[in-house]
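Progress note, project year one: complex with nicotinamide-adenine-dinucleotide.
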Amino acid sequence: MSKLHVAVIGCGSIARHRHLVEYANHPEVKIVAVCDAVESRVKETAEIYNAKAYTSYEELLTMEKIDAISVCLPNYLHAPVSIAALNKGCHVLCEKPMATSREEAEEMIKAAASNNKKLMIGHNQRFVPSHQKARKLIEQGEIGKIYSFRTTFGHGGPEGWSADGTDSWFFKKDQAFIGAMGDLGVHKADLLRYLLNEEFVQVGAFVETSAKENTNVDDNATLILKTKSGVIGTLAASWAYTAKEDNSTIIYGENATLRLEDDPQYSLVVHYKNGESVYYELGGIQSNAEGGQTTTHVIDHFVESILKDSEPLIDGEEGKKSLEVILGALESVKSNSIYHMEK
Ligand SMILES: NC(=O)c1ccc[n+]([C@@H]2O[C@H](COP(=O)([O-])OP(=O)(O)OC[C@H]3O[C@@H](n4cnc5c(N)ncnc54)[C@H](O)[C@@H]3O)[C@@H](O)[C@H]2O)c1
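Model obtained:
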């Protein structure tokens, strides 16, 4: 069988560190084209991967015969570019947060269904080995009834990550739509939905801009959440963990406490009620820090879902539900009250 022809739209940090590298390593994929608005950036990328360079995604979609694309663009472009590609008959892997509104997310889902194409959202936290193991332990009843959790994702801010540094779109509301909460918080909303295997029904939030001066989006957010069955917890997202990244999650249950990505050596630690502890060394989480890059499994999973015609783990509906938690938090801030998701 001939290789899957792939294009990557946006050649910034996430494309360079993960999508391009992981497609290039996949034996059944050929990167045929890349696109970025910055000409020097796209030319350099095209040279590395022996692909064709475009500065306009519309032109790329018109000129090339592509099976699948990755959307690695600022948040406000996720929906329009994904929908354009789906309508051209491409499968789409779109970065998170899926879209900037519920309506956009629904349009993306509709476009995937009407064109019979896969739509996957890049919530890589689900593929982290410690997270997968925790989900299994919870599912098997090993932890008993889950009572509560606390989860956080923070680092020093996107100026240390984005291709455009302090000038990045991450800091501009018209392009990013939200700050740390949409960049990092949405990952944890998705992770907790996955671990607990149920939906959040209530959310309250404090969302602040306290650390950065060059932005009109949030850089610190704390959410309180409640699931349908009554599990309660907190979710924090921050661009102001100035000294060190924190990407940890703790789950408190009837029989045990799970500590995820909290210990530098043991990515999962289980403390049982009877005093025993089990320490799992399961390999690291993807991190922005030097040497923190491990495979995300996102690209492999996306390619497999196309080749095997199976539904990706994080399809459009899943991406939308995780986005809705963040949108609910914004509603809570607006109304200064707890937002009921099922309203
Ligand atoms: N899954 C993850 O863990 C993870 C991590 C980081 C970023 N992301 C997501 O990936 C996406 C991209 O983020 P990034 O960190 O690569 O940002 P970045 O700033 O490093 O790169 C964005 C790129 O998009 C290009 N661009 C902007 N407008 C364009 C247009 N109209 N046409 C073509 N190119 C255009 C820019 O020139 C830039 O090269 C974001 O949605 C972000 O939330 C996901």
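Residues 10-15, 35-38, 41, 57, 72-75, 77, 95-96, 122, 124, 161-164, 168-169, 183 surround nicotinamide-adenine-dinucleotide (CB under 6 Å).
The CA atoms of residues 203 and 225 lie 5 Å apart.
No further modelling is planned for this target in the current period.
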